[in-house]
Design a protein that fits this description.
0% of the residues lie in helices and 27% in strands. By secondary structure, it is mostly beta strands. It is globular.
């Protein structure tokens, strides 16, 4: 299994993970950035179907000066299918009340049959 975090979606693209209208007045707000940093991270998990672990973290990668990693639960996180998250790798060292805004997508590539490849 290969996981990708491609660059942010274009503004014209209808697909957004968290539409701006879903933010509450007191919650985190997106920053207006003229040229936001973007990156692509690829994580290949060997023998995915044979994994016998509750959760697995990718190696740490940097985007915009921040440390990130992908977290997966191969058998699901309270569900019966793969659960996958973008994780702030150094959250335990950040000050109380910290927040970050990130626009991202995650891709699971099925190397046997591409029609089962998923992008969210």
């Amino acid at each position: 299994m290969t996981l990708l975090t491609p660059p942010p979606l274009d503004q014209e693209d209808d697909e957004m993970l968290v539409p701006h209208s879903d933010f509450t007045a007191g919650g985190p707000q997106p920053m207006e950035v003229d040229d936001p940093p973007s990156a692509r991270f690829t994580w290949t998990v060997e023998n995915f179907s044979r994994l016998n672990t509750k959760k697995l973290y990718s190696e740490i990668f940097y985007v915009g000066g921040y440390k990130w990693r992908v977290l997966i639960f191969p058998k699901g996180n309270n569900v019966d299918h793969l659960s996958m998250y973008l994780d702030v790798a150094d959250s335990a060292t950040l000050p109380y009340g910290w927040s970050r805004y990130a626009q991202f997508s995650l891709v699971v590539i099925n190397q046997i049959n591409n029609k089962f490849t998923v992008r969210k």
